[in-house]
Amino acid sequence: MTAALRVLVVDDHPVVRSGIVGLLRTEPGIDVVGEAGDGASAVTLAAQTRPDVVLMDLRMPVLDGVAATRRILADTSAGPPPRVLVLTTYESDEQILAAIEAGASGYLLKAAPPEEILAGLRAVAAGSAALSPSVAATLVAQVRTARSSAGESTTGRGGPEDRGGLAVGLTPRELEVLALVAQGRSNPAVGRALHIGEATVKSHLLRVFAKLEVSDRTRAVTRAQELGLL
């Protein structure tokens, strides 16, 4: 029998938190192991309960979701830390990028349908990323803006990075990560090979997903192969 997916729910609004917990408790194979109303409590409970995934809000008292994510992912004293899936009302560019830089494996909006939230939770638990369509679009726009600001055209160069007008611009490190993923290595294995943390691997992969305009590891590899990057 497959072990239940252990989830810690973090949200400072009691009614919202109760609704999320209620949704998860109706779903077979998911076990809510704790609830927290602020980031500091989330850090403490994550250390105590060792969940598989922390469902994290962003704007909270005492300690915000980005800072809490960093602390939770930095705690490897009892083994690999849980994965963090941001579930929030907010989708500003600054908040999205801050959460991803902190090591979050996904970013969904509370307005998403329940099935999207549940699918995202399971995807993150399995080591994949979960991004709402609007968040993925924001990341792609950020990448294109950065490329444009650097004076690099996204069309007309004729190389593999520009087929179809797609602004790829993968960094050498992102290509290293993607190459190891193409070999079938897990995020922890990629981190060990490159001597970087798993949270850093996730951050690189999310940027790769945005640049390649895909939403999972398999499609990232196939898309990179199509573009001649691997």
From TrEMBL:
Which one of the record's GO molecular function terms can you name?
DNA binding
Pfam families in the cross-refs:
GerE, Response_reg
Q: What domain of life?
A: Bacteria
Q: Name one GO biological process term.
A: phosphorelay signal transduction system
SMART domains from the xrefs? HTH_LUXR, REC
Q: Which CDD domains match?
A: LuxR_C_like, REC_NarL-like
Reply yes or no: does the keyword NADP apply.
no
Q: Known PROSITE patterns for this protein?
A: HTH_LUXR_1, HTH_LUXR_2, RESPONSE_REGULATORY
PANTHER family assigned to the protein according to its UniProt record, in alphabetical order: TRANSCRIPTIONAL REGULATORY PROTEIN NARL-RELATED, TWO-COMPONENT RESPONSE REGULATOR
Name all Response regulatory domain ranges: 6-125
Question: InterPro entries attached here?
Answer: CheY-like_superfamily, NreC/VraR/RcsB-like_REC, Sig_transdc_resp-reg_C-effctor, Sig_transdc_resp-reg_receiver, Tscrpt_reg_LuxR_C, WalR-like
Q: What is the protein name for this chain? A: Response regulator transcription factor
Q: Which UniProt keywords apply?
A: DNA-binding, Phosphoprotein, Transcription, Transcription regulation
- Keyword Signal listed: no
Organism equals Miniimonas arenae
